[in-house]
Structure formats: C-alpha cells, structure tokens
Amino acid sequence: xxxxxGNESRVWGETMTIREExxxxxxxxxxxxxxxxxxxxxxxxDEEKCDLRTDFQRDxxxxxxxxxxxxxxxxxxxxxxPRGDHYRTRLTHTLEVSQISRxxxxxxxxxxxxxxxxxxxxxxxxxxxxxxxxxxLNEICPLGFSHNQQSxxxxxxxxKSGEGLNLTWEVRDGILNHPTSGHPGTLEGMIVRYCDKxxxxxxxxxxxxxxxxxxxxxxPQKYRDSIGPTPRVRLDALIHDLIAQSRGKDRITxxxxxxxxxxxxxxxMFDHVYRNSVAKGEEYKAVSMLQSLYRYYIEHEDKxxxxxxxxxxxxxxxxxxxxxxxxxxxxxxxxxxxxxxxxVPGSWKEF
Length: 351
Hints:
Blueprint: E1 8-11, E2 14-17, H1 18-29, H2 55-64, H3 67-71, H4 90-108, H5 112-121, H6 130-140, H7 147-162, H8 169-176, H9 187-211, H10 221-226, H11 231-246, H12 256-274, H13 283-299, H14 306-313, H15 319-328, H16 332-343
Antiparallel strand pairs: 1-2
C-alpha cells in the first residue's frame, strides 16, 4: 500500500522506502558472496540516503552524468582518429564492458548495480589518444601516471569543481583495481577486471579486421579451435566459461585452459595490433604533442582552466599532477586544437 509521500510501500507490516525495499530484496535474491548495498563500507563524506536508489545505483547515475564520462566519446580506444563511424571509442568500449559484466553478474546472482557502476567508471581517467597518451604522461611526469589511478582521482576530486562524486568504497576499489595487476576487494570488481579484457580482446579484433590489419585466418589456429572461429563465438565462449567456473564460488575465475588461451590471444593482439606499425604509425606524434603540452603548462600554469589553477594555488595540489589532470581530461580533438593554437603559427593553418 502506498503512503501519502508516494514513494513508500507496506512490506511485511513495516513502512519501507523503495531503496530499503530493494536492499531487502538483495538479501533474498543475491548470492551470499555478493556485495549488498546496505552493507557498503560507505563514502568518504556521509550523505543522506536516497529514498529511491541504493548507494550503488546512485554511484552509477553520478558516473553517467559526470563530464568525464561524456568526454569518453571523443577519446581513442585503439585506432587514432579512424576514418569510419563503426570503430570503437573509449565510450563504446566502456558500454560493452558494462553490458558483458552485467550479464555475468546476473548469471552469478551478484550485485549488478555495483558491477555497472564500476564498469562505467573504470576508464574515466584515460588520456586523449588512449594508451599512447597514458605512456606519454607517465614518461614525462616525475610523479608517474596511470589511467586507473586517474579514474579514482576524477571521482574523488576533479569532478564537480573539486568536490568529486563521493562514491562508495566498493565502486572506487573496483575502478582502481580493474587492470590485470589489480586485486579487487569484491567479486563484482573481479568481474569487471575479467570482462574488460574479454571485451577489448574481441572488439579490437573486430576493429582490426574492419581496418584490414587482420584477417580471421591470421589468428593462430590454436585459439580459433579452443575459443572460437569468430569474435562473436569467442566472446560467447569466454563469457560462458567465466560463469560456469565461478558459479557458487567465492571467487571469479576461468578454467585454466581457457584463461591461458585468452592470455595467449591477448599477447597475439599486442604483437600484431597494439604494436602494429600501421595501426600505431601516428602514435609518436600523439606522444610528442601531449609531452609538448605538458612542458608548456608546467611553465604556464595560469593558462589552464581556472578550476585547475585553483587546485594548485588554493588547495596545494602538486603542479605536475594538476598538469596531468588537465591534459588527461582533454579529448583527442581538443588536445589537437590546443596544440595548434599554442605551437602552430597562424599563417600555416590556411594550407
């Protein structure tokens, strides 16, 4: 029975908000190994609970609505500035990781909302021009740079003019630990860690075949036999194996043979696509461009946007880190435009 407020209902003789009703259903439906919303380790700053959404649902929504998420549509996944509408960007990669992760979480009766939030936020910190940009900043900045740590910095500090998104511990942990070397503290974070690789291995093969860099018969027969003869079949096989091997367990895992073959296919992609001279022939330009921007802003911090200048002058953040923040937040197109404005004489731009 609904109350006068319109957002409460009678459950088991008690008045519960929709959020509380959802939290109660999680205890009934989800695996005992799942992360339950009501048991979250919380946020750095306490907030009043939402009457409609669980904490993990709220985190997902905050990520979707943040500026860094919108910028992903103009950031490189693998191919720099491809001529074609069907190549993946960092945003479409993120959406594919989210979809695959939710499928796995639902099958394992784990927390789908937590998985969704982690997946949607895992690459917020990626630079323009993908891993080439990440490498450029890591090489030139004495503090180092990694996109997963930058993703956490975005949600902790950079969004909302220095307030951050104040996400739950579980979402932040999953974002930070999604790389291969990471050790997520929840099974939901482990799902995203696996599904990120499952997604990019298969969609990068698809894009490489579209670009004419790979043909299906170039993929070693061993992996075509063991995982499948097409990206779609391989994707299906990897997801099924991950689910079958993880059901009813307190860990997320694949069968040893399938995981070994997935890593072998990943190594093949590094050798033939990620380091391919055709696919990556322009990367040295991107690296040079971003490092030139870094050197410029180190010497001219006042030329950055006011919110970044304020981080240095009012909040005591290190200049080198904030310069990385500023450059990493750029899209491919904006970084190129800024470089032209700063370093290309105006008369040249007409030719």
